[in-house]
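Batch job 17 of 40 flagged for manual review because the log was empty.
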Amino acid sequence: MPKKVDHEKRKDLIFTKALEVFATTGFHNTSLSLIALKCGLSRTSVYEYFKDQSEIFSYGIIKTTENMFEKYTSSKWEKENKLEQLTQVCNDVINVASSHEKEISNFVKVLDELEIDIDSIIHRRTARLRLFLCRTIRSGINNNQIKKINAEDCVDKIFNLIESFCFQMSLVGKKNAALTKELLDMYLESLKA
């Protein structure tokens, strides 16, 4: 009887292994054959999921960002205290990033080689999450839980701190990125009404 293949797991494996290959041999020097070898799959199997390296890279960006909005808008994350909710979401993003340190490090190495506007891509991919955080902040302001601030500016600062944490973690390690996490915590605490 043929073995059932979990296609999502296989795509994730291909993406993770591709990042490793991209980071060591360079994005432009990587072939799907090298990725297949690293995955322990045939080149044909990799072609079943991705037509080229760019599609693999795009998949990673989409995969990383697509479920964030749905995750954080679920009732599990809903809190009466909106500052507590905001803090919990930010801490979860940091914790998830920390658990994927190697992938983020490889992703950053690939970004160095590619000439793409990653800021605008990430901004577009996280637009719904940004709106959710703005609504959370405004609700906290209306309930006198968060001081009166510009919600969009606040979300920009939060995202900048989270991005800084991820880049520092990937370049110099979690220990050195801890200072940025502390800055994020202090910033969130400063929002208290």
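Reviewer: the log was empty due to a logging misconfiguration, but the result itself is present. DSSP finds eleven helices and no strands in the chain. Unflagging and moving on to job 18.
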